[in-house]
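Title: Comparing notes on inverse folding

I've been comparing how different people in this forum approach sequence design from structure. To keep things fair, I'm posting one structure and asking everyone to reply with a full sequence. Here's the target:
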């Protein structure tokens, strides 16, 4: 059993300078394919047990490598789409490993070996099986999304961004039902059956890819939001988000300031080290003062000296928050350690923008209404689909090609 202190160290952000790579997984994958090919060519259907054991070992090693890469990515850069990829596919590999171990155990009771066609058939159906077995989770998750979106609409109004969860829920549930109805009965010529199976398994592979990414987003968001930065910071950036008509912070913004204040006091009590606040936010067309000035006034009212506050009042979005705050910080202390405070559902995305401007900053999340989080995770998921298109195309295309070839081998 892993000691809790070991897990804590594995979850520490920004403690590694080298980016994790998965070259070993590629080497192991190629080696596994070669071994399976040798078994198939030299022994035919008389080595199915050995082939299943090889697959079990392959999935076990793949899982270890993916989980290891996930924790190393947190230590290198937690606000990365690699974090999402590693966690999402680790979940899928867990399913494959458990399924193949159960099948291997069952084979010990058989008097005959499984044929190659039967093994390839089991592998080609893995995405479909995963999709159907995880349907209860999808159903519960989709219901929760709908409930949270209805609450969000009641409080925030009817806007497209506030119904994204409902749209995704219908797509998730509808995809499984569509597969079930299409795959419920099939007969006819072998060529028609081959085409039918290709459509089913490729559709399942596509669904699987997006489901893995969704799970990865949820996990990455939750870890980023719950993380508490090390108490050794020189600066904390507070990201602006809106003011009342009288120029005082809205509850959402007040939560971000209070979170930064709590971290300030905790660090001072723990290490004796004080930090500098960077209030980041410009003045909107409907705001009487800048968000930065409003935050500064709030901090002063709560006992923070003015000389420990830097105003950044030019930014209009999160990207500019990070860009302009970095300029202010570099002018004071280029080597300073940086944290940022925002709302919990916004931490991961904000971290992405910080890294985009080449600033190492660790986020902390302020609590907010429960109905904000699910829809925020959906927005992050949709944002993922528009980024790193080449990487996604390679992974997604590789999955489609794999299941295409497996179906051809079955027939």
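Reply #1:
Here's my take.
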């Amino acid at each position: 059993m892993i000691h809790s202190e070991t897990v804590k160290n594995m979850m520490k952000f920004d403690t590694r300078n080298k980016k994790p790579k998965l070259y070993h997984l590629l080497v192991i994958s190629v080696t596994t394919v070669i071994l399976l090919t040798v078994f198939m060519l030299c022994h035919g259907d008389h080595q199915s047990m050995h082939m299943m054991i090889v697959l079990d070992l392959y999935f076990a090693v793949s899982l270890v490598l993916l989980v290891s890469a996930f924790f190393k990515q947190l230590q290198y850069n937690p606000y990365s789409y690699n974090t999402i990829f590693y966690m999402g596919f680790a979940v899928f590999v867990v399913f494959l490993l458990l399924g193949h171990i159960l099948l291997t155990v069952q084979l010990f009771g058989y008097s005959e070996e499984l044929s190659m066609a039967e093994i390839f058939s089991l592998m080609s159906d893995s995405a479909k099986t995963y999709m159907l077995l995880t349907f209860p989770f999808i159903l519960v998750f989709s219901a929760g999304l709908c409930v949270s979106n209805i609450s969000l609409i009641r409080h925030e109004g009817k806007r497209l961004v506030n119904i994204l969860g409902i749209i995704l829920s219908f797509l998730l549930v509808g995809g499984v039902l569509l597969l079930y109805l299409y795959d419920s009965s099939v007969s006819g010529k072998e060529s028609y059956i081959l085409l039918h199976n290709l459509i089913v398994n490729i559709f399942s592979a596509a669904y699987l890819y997006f489901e893995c990414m969704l799970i990865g987003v949820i996990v990455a968001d939750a870890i980023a939001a719950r993380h508490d930065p090390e108490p050794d910071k020189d600066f904390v950036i507070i990201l602006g988000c809106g003011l009342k008509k009288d120029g005082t912070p809205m509850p959402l913004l007040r939560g971000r300031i209070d979170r930064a204040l709590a971290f300030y006091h905790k660090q001072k009590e723990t290490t004796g080290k004080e930090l500098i606040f960077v209030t980041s936010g410009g003045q909107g067309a409907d705001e009487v003062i800048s968000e930065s000035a409003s935050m500064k006034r709030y901090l002063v009212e709560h006992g923070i000296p003015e000389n420990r506050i830097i105003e950044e009042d030019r930014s209009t979005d999160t990207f500019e928050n990070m860009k302009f705050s970095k300029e202010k910080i570099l002018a004071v202390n280029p080597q300073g350690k940086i944290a940022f405070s925002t709302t919990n559902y916004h931490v991961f995305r904000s971290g992405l923008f910080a890294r985009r401007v080449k600033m190492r900053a660790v986020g902390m999340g302020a609590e907010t209404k429960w109905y904000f989080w699910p829809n925020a995770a959906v927005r992050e998921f949709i944002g993922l689909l528009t980024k790193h298109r080449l990487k996604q195309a390679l992974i997604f295309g590789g999955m489609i090609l794999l299941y295409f070839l497996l179906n051809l081998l079955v027939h």
